[in-house]
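To the wet lab folks,

You asked to see what we're planning to order before we commit. Fair enough. Below is the target structure as tokens, and below that is the sequence we designed to fit it. If anything looks off to you, flag it before the synthesis order goes out.
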């Protein structure tokens, strides 16, 4: 009974002494934004069905086998994606190290020495002054009992960092697929612009032959002939410039895919199938985005890091035990009389550490503030990103409708100008003016088609690119961080 009272008294004294190291006055300063504050009602985010479902391989909906092959190749060989995967492996290893700290440890040792025992020490003659072999064969075990959750919180922090790293891998994959698709559509745009320029050159060559015939017939002057001749080098220069851009875009796409000798045949934008787009920002946006999920898990990790840092202000209780053999003279090492063992608790408590624990806690608290503000920035950027893409998609649809009407009018005006010129009722300047309007509309039609596809890709990325969060991440995304 007396021994029990002594142990309880020692433990109480240890806890009181631990109070000498205090973490009072060190608290987080940042507050996480709620779903309501960014226009996403929290109840909706939890119960409303998705506005539009996005497949993880959403790019296949464009119905382009070459694009599918390019994305698959990029995902397999992208350095940026492999960097994200390496970070995930590192985070997982840190988690395993943190888990090991919560479990008992065991180790074995064998020590053999040749030693001279001094004549003025603990050992009497004839051992004193002699040279002997000594040996120790021992097995030991220890377990630091995590009374205050230091290691448990560290494990939770490592788990959060691992989940964040996994979400980073998904975000990198989504971004890479979007970059490849955008690069592919840019190449298709340049290819269509090149077709427009080549068509324009053929049209101008035909006009030039018409002007030359009229000059020979005395119906036109050298002025009209020079005007028609001047338009030909301009068309050829535009073709050459577009061919240069096509090659540069091929090189950029090859670098993105990781295959310098990439062999591709870009198709026309008209042959690509458009994707369905939502009418509004989905209520479950935060759960869709891997970058937001990663930011949310980093708050969880930082919160547990702070809790682990606070637990370091309390005592450590360690249970240790050993059993083994120790002897002077190796011949006696395995004798039963060489048996040695020991067991007992050890308590270590911080009393004065020159501010080390408080400085560590301040650092972890600053990391939490940083994680919270990064999360706030991520969710604001996510909402703005989707809103921008939706606005652009709607605007481009309206612009395309107006552009089609403008192009029809320009094509009609051009045909009338050519007919009037052939009939001698108009000047060649009228033909050039009408042709310029037609050329502008043809180029604009290609650009708007490319922008429509590019915006669809950007919207797929902004909506998470088909990211499939695990149930725990979905639960976390539906809650406002509280720390």
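Sequence we intend to order:
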């Amino acid at each position: 009974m007396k021994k029990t009272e002594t142990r309880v008294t020692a433990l109480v004294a240890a806890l009181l002494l631990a109070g000498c190291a205090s973490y009072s006055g060190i608290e987080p300063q940042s507050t996480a934004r709620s779903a309501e504050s960014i226009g996403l009602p929290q109840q909706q985010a939890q119960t409303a069905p998705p506005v539009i479902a996005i497949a993880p391989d959403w790019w296949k909906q464009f119905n382009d086998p070459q694009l599918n092959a390019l994305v698959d190749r990029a995902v397999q060989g992208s350095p940026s994606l492999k960097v994200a995967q390496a970070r995930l492996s590192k985070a997982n290893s840190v988690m395993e190290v943190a888990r090991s700290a919560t479990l008992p440890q065991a180790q074995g040792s064998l020590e053999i020495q040749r030693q001279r025992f001094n004549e003025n020490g603990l050992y009497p003659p004839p051992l004193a002054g002699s040279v002997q072999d000594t040996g120790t064969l021992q097995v030991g075990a220890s377990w630091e009992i995590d009374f205050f959750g230091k290691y448990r919180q560290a494990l939770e922090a490592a788990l959060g960092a691992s989940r964040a790293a996994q979400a980073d891998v998904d975000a990198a994959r989504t971004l890479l697929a979007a970059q490849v698709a955008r690069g592919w559509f840019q190449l298709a745009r340049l290819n269509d612009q090149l077709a427009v320029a080549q068509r324009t050159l053929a049209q101008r060559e035909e006009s030039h032959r018409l002007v030359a015939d009229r000059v020979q017939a005395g119906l036109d002057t050298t002025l009209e002939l020079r005007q028609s001749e001047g338009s030909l080098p301009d068309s050829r220069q535009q073709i050459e410039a577009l061919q240069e851009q096509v090659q540069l875009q091929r090189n950029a796409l090859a670098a993105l895919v990781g295959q310098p000798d990439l062999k591709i045949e870009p198709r026309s934008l008209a042959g690509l199938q458009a994707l369905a787009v939502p009418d509004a920002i989905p209520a479950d946006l935060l759960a869709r985005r891997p970058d937001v999920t990663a930011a949310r898990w980093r708050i969880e990790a930082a919160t547990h890091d702070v809790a682990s840092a606070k637990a370091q202000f309390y005592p450590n209780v360690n249970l240790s035990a050993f059993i083994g053999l120790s002897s002077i003279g190796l011949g006696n090492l395995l004798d039963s009389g060489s048996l040695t063992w020991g067991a007992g608790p050890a308590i270590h408590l911080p009393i004065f550490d020159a501010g080390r624990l408080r400085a560590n806690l301040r650092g972890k608290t600053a990391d939490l503030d940083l994680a919270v503000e990064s999360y706030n920035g991520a969710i604001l950027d996510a909402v703005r990103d989707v809103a921008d893409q939706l606005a652009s998609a709607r605007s481009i649809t309206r612009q395309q409708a107006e552009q089609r009407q403008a192009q029809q009018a320009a094509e009609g005006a051009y045909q009338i100008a050519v007919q009037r010129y052939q009939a001698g009722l108009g000047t060649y300047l009228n033909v050039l003016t009408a042709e310029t309007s037609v050329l502008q509309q043809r180029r604009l039609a290609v650009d708007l088609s490319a922008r429509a596809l590019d915006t669809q890709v950007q919207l797929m990325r902004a909506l998470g690119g088909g990211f499939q969060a695990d149930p725990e991440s979905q639960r976390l995304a539906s809650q406002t961080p509280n720390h």
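Structural context that might help your review: Residues 193 and 441 are 11 Å apart (CA to CA). The beta strands are 105-116, 131-145, 316-328, 339-348.

Thanks,
Computational group
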